[in-house]
Design brief:
Chain lengths: 215, 191, 298
């Protein structure tokens, strides 16, 4: 039997919030109080809306390639990477210092066997432990350079010069770091530096490809 | 978002086999795991951090951790549970610094809460196609502590005792933060 | 580039005047807005000033030049605006120079701007700022929760504290006068300078640009500096609680901050330094290929 005195006491928000989670249809006070009834309904509607939120949200399109690149950088033994460049965009005079692995764009972490260097200009053999890490970066960089080349006409000459010069600076840094790494393949600090340069290159290329969209 | 490559096997043996292959360096297996779980991980990171950019970075951190520790998962729980628990722990440690900084701001928020404000009790907001967007925005605008508990409890389904353990607080604190979050959300959505 | 939804919104939003004209026209748009409204502004604009204010409304004022066109509007036709989008078109670069706008937004809103060569100034916004230019400059003040700035050769200056900041240029200089919870400053050949604030987690990255850090690290903080050939200089408080791990592959390391002595690097090339002071509360990692590293007292 309900105590008439008690049924007049409003429930505070916390009590109504707790009540909303329970499948109770009857609460003596709420049944007779418009204010508490309305608040309870709001909380239940909030919970319904919350449960209807999508369980998944799509990550950015480049998330997978970024993840691959990062995992590549975390691998313990540095591996010289294949360097791709697209003649249409950059007629860079920088020489390819090391070319490792086969010239494919297949994305794989694990090696299918030791890669054979092609046209290497270093004196030491490329380390035997090899993954196709290079090809991960190479593929992403190649795709981005092609996309950039397609948009070149939409950018001002000054912007093109800035981007080209910056990419050339990074290319030169990559070449120097790779040369050093080939001579000292167990140097983790060098591996960190080289990975950072590749990430900077990918980031700059991505930013440059986005310049003309919505401008 | 690209289409899923293949369905992740729902049975535990199948999951174990997939995880073993990924841990051994099979990138196709790892990509399967990524495609199957990245959407939910990203959703959790976005809602907990209230920033898509940070969520993208956190999602990447999660899967680097998954890649590094996949060999330690023995199938005691579902792979999804293991990944999401890892996600929550990582996001919480990232959010903890934010909570320390916002301690002062929480005082201001609490003052705001206690002010007498006219409320639209009895006004029922009609369902609309924008409702989900409004709610996501409102969640993102919550103070950190309240947002954390709201996402973990009302969105992800964790109980207060679990949340208390994960956040290093008391169950009572978790309940209080949840009520605060719901109140703020209702106010925001009914403005 | 007309969005049918926007066209509908423009037709419905009768209070929003837009100029279509051939002559210089004044822009004066005002709308009630939600406190966390999202505003996008892009196109051929040479000067943009963003002001976060304590009103629940948006105002876009200023002027656009002859031959320019302002398009856009709210994304919801009824009620306070939740999202608003503006686009400015100019006939040519000379035309864009005459396009100068001021955007007033609720302090907690999120503002996204993309322009070519533009000078952007933003202050008083505590929500989010996402600013993209090619050239020109970006100057931000205050305490935005999230600050994302991308520029090619435009300079970037932040005077204040952002909880989360990513400031990136190719050749533009970056200046942070303040701190943040989680900040990353990245350039290819511009300079980076950070001072007058405390950072919790920070990354400072360049390829050839110099990096100078004269700020403070929070207890338990973590700062990483990496460069190929830029000079790195850290000016540290004598009593700072730090643990430092520095390596330059072929460059030099000079330590005037404490008594730690750099040693020769691997195979006698370059230098390395591992040193700490106090309880080692914060961690500093420095990696340089051939840039010289210098630690000095403040």
């Amino acid at each position: 039997m309900t105590d008439p005195g008690k049924s007049m006491e409003h429930l505070n928000f916390e009590q109504l919030s707790d009540l909303a989670e329970r499948d109770e249809h009857r609460n003596p006070h709420v049944e007779t109080c418009a204010e508490c009834h309305a608040t309870l309904r709001q909380v239940r509607e909030l919970l319904v809306a919350t449960h209807a939120l999508p369980r998944e949200l799509p990550p950015p399109p480049e998330a997978w390639s970024d993840l691959k690149a990062r995992i590549t950088a975390e691998l313990p033994v540095p591996v010289p990477r294949a360097r791709w460049w697209h003649n249409g965009w950059l007629a860079s005079a920088a020489a390819i210092v090391l070319i490792a692995g086969t010239m494919t764009l297949t994305m794989r972490f694990t090696s299918t066997g030791p890669a054979k260097a092609k046209g290497a200009v270093v004196t030491k053999a490329i380390p035997a432990v090899l993954t196709s890490v290079d090809r991960n970066y190479a593929g992403t960089i190649h795709e981005l350079r092609m996309a950039l080349d397609a948009q070149r006409a939409t950018l001002s000459p000054a912007t093109v010069r800035t981007v080209e010069n910056s990419l050339r600076i990074i290319d030169d840094a990559i070449a120097e770091a790779r040369q050093a790494l080939a001579e000292d393949p167990a140097n983790q600090a060098l591996a960190d530096i080289l990975a950072a340069h590749y990430e900077r290159q990918v980031d700059l290329l991505r930013r440059a490809t986005q310049l003309s969209s919505s401008l | 978002m690209t289409a899923r490559l293949e369905l992740v096997p729902s049975d535990r043996d199948g999951e174990l086999a997939l995880a073993r292959r990924a841990a051994a360096g099979d990138d196709a297996a790892f990509e399967q795991i990524y495609r199957a779980h990245s959407g939910r991980v990203f959703a959790l990171c976005t809602r907990m951090s209230a920033s898509r950019q940070r969520a993208a970075e956190l999602t990447q951190d999660v899967f680097v951790h998954v890649w590094k520790r996949l060999g330690t998962w023995r199938g005691e729980s579902a792979l999804s549970s293991w990944i999401y628990r890892l996600t929550v722990n990582l996001v919480l440690s990232n959010v903890r610094g934010e909570q320390r900084r916002q301690k002062h701001e929480m005082t201001e928020d609490q003052k705001e809460d206690s002010e007498e404000k006219p409320s639209d009790l009895g006004v029922v907001r009609p369902a609309s196609v924008h409702e989900a967007i409004d709610l996501e925005r409102a969640i993102a605008a919550l103070p950190t502590g309240a947002r954390t508990v709201f996402v973990l409890h009302d969105v992800e389904g964790y109980q207060h005792d679990e949340i208390a353990k994960m956040t290093g607080t008391a169950e009572g604190t978790s309940r209080a933060q949840l009520h605060r979050a719901r109140k703020l959300l209702i106010e925001a959505l009914n403005r | 580039m007309r969005n049918p939804l926007l066209t509908l919104a423009i037709a419905a939003a009768t209070a929003v005047p837009f100029s279509v004209g051939a002559a210089q026209q004044k822009v004066d748009i005002h709308r009630a807005a939600s406190p966390t409204v999202s505003v996008r502004l892009n196109g051929a604009i040479s000067v943009i000033r963003v002001v976060g204010w304590d009103k629940d409304s948006i105002a876009l004022v200023g002027g656009i030049g002859a031959g320019s066109r302002l398009d856009g509007g709210p994304l919801n036709a009824v009620g306070p605006v939740q999202g608003m989008k503006f686009y400015v078109e100019a006939a040519d670069e000379a035309g864009s120079r005459a396009n100068r706008l001021e955007l007033y937004v609720p302090a907690r809103s999120r503002v996204w701007i993309k322009a070519g060569s533009a000078d952007i100034e933003a202050g008083g916004v505590t929500g989010g700022l996402d600013l993209n230019i090619v050239g020109g400059s970006v100057r931000v003040s205050g305490a935005p929760r999230e600050l994302l700035v991308e520029s090619m050769d435009g300079s970037v200056t932040m005077n204040g504290t952002a909880e989360f900041a990513r400031l990136k240029t190719a050749t533009g200089d970056i200046v942070l006068q303040g701190g943040g919870e989680d900040v990353t400053l990245t350039t290819v050949s511009g300079s980076i300078r950070a001072s007058d604030g405390t950072v919790q987690r920070a990354r400072f990255e360049s390829v050839t640009g110099p990096i100078v850090f004269a700020g403070d690290l929070a207890r338990g903080g973590d700062a990483k500096f990496d460069t190929h050939s830029g000079a790195i200089e850290l000016r540290l408080a004598r009593r700072a609680d730090l643990e430092i791990d520095a390596a330059s592959i072929t460059g030099s390391i000079e330590n005037g901050w404490n008594s730690g002595r750099p040693i020769a690097g691997r195979e006698g090339r370059g230098m390395e330094l591992g040193t700490s002071s106090g309880m080692g509360g914060a961690r500093v990692t420095i990696r340089s290929f051939k840039g010289n590293v210098k630690l000095a007292p403040k």
